Amino acid sequence: MPLWTVHGDGRTVAPGAVVAPTERLSWPATLAMGVQHVVAMFGATFLVPSLTGFPVSTTLLFSGLGTLLFLVVTKNQLPSYLGSSFAFIAPITAAVAAGGTGSALAGVVAVGLLLALVGVVVQVAGLGWVDALMPPVVAGAIVALIGFNLAPTAWTNFQADGATATITLVAVILFSVLFRGFLGRISIFLGVVVGYVYAAFTGSFDIPNPLRGDRTPAELIADAPWIGLPEFHLPDFVSPGTWTTIAMFLPVVLVLVAENVGHVRGVATMTDASVNRHTGRALIADGAATMLAGGFGGSGTTTYGENIGVMAATRVYSTAVYWIAGGFAILLAFSPKIGEVFNSIPAGVLGGATTALYGLIGIIGIKIWVDNRVDFSRPVNQYTAAVALVIAIAGFSLDAGAFSFGGIVLGTVAALAIYHLGNLIARARRTGADDGGPIPAVGPLGGDPLDGDAAGGDAPR
């Protein structure tokens, strides 16, 4: 792997310039930016285990280890942080309810293996087949339906404490519109902090938890040691129910492919087009990191838009920053007290945060449509999106013998089938097929307005 060269004077980045993946600033600046990337990913990464019941410290550990593995596999050429993927929330929740944690972990491992295999194919054959399988209307529908399928979960948590949930949600929205730059990009994390503090002052931490020996959250936090090993679990491939639940995880692969491809293209757009040649390695690396996490009790990983946002704001794409970030996350994972703090987040706080967060996942899918100017005057596009979203939002299900398929699986299959079969017929009948285009660079939803917008003038569009 290449060593980093110092960019300029090691302290500043000239206007219009970027710090390339193989460059770095001074080590103090690199250290600070690495910690900043951990803060950026933290708000989203800890929510996944908090919502699925997985150990927070374990997920954080494999997030850090996965990031380091990603850097090794991509030959230190592709800056990325691997945080917890929200695409796993729905299948993990369903799998735990049906077959337990072991079955859910088996599903995570299966997704990682399949993603790595896709990466091998991409590395050998290129990206053309991915673009053909998932044109923008299909990719957007799959991403959107995963977020909207989680809406009932957000409502359940919201109902647990409506006042706390509302305060959390309002705080998330206010932080996103009040602040520019980094603080605006971590609005969900800051909103959770506000909700957490409100819950603490209103007595939520004095309520005994029957699942934790009738001990209060405050007692659990106080008694937890500062240093200790994370909690590990092994996947269960033996129980008959495991193979039934694994089917629910397979659509997640499509989302992870879209996220990884979009991440690579985003970095390439902002640094050097040659970065695109690492797409196959990125998929292999994320697949391997997901398998590693699922093999020992962590949640599946993905490249993080939050960290793309930080890179875009700082113009620093140095992989040295991510070595620092991954190492710092690993250190945090060995603090049970920190894990108990996250485990103590009240349901109302999660309800407020996830109302925004799950909606934003859906909006990312819609953003793919907008960025690619998907033509919704064409019936094949209309029905691809419409049917898939309704199936996911309503929570359609299908029992087929020993297998049970939920809204995410059925919605994904519907999107793929309607688009490709509908296009086949539309081409034959010349009724207006849609031949799509490549998946775009999927960047962060937030970010600062252009100077013209901020000043009230007309900015170039």
Task: Going across the biggest sheet, name each strand in turn.
Answer: 1-2
Helix content: 55-70%
Report the total helices.
22
Strand content: under 5%
**What is the rounded distance between the termini?**
40 Å
Mean pLDDT: 80
SSE string, helices as H and strands as E: EEHHHEHHHHHHHHHHHHEHHHHHEEHH
Largest sheet: 2 strands, parallel
Structural class determined from secondary elements: mainly alpha
* Tally of structural domains: 1
Keywords: Membrane, Transmembrane, Transmembrane helix
GO molecular function: nucleobase transmembrane transporter activity
Membrane topology: Multi-pass membrane protein
Region (Disordered): 437-461
Q: Which structural traits does this protein have?
A:
disordered C terminus; Nitrate reductase; NCS2; mainly alpha; 22 helices; two-stranded parallel sheet; globular; two-stranded antiparallel ribbon; 6 strands; transmembrane helix; 461 residues
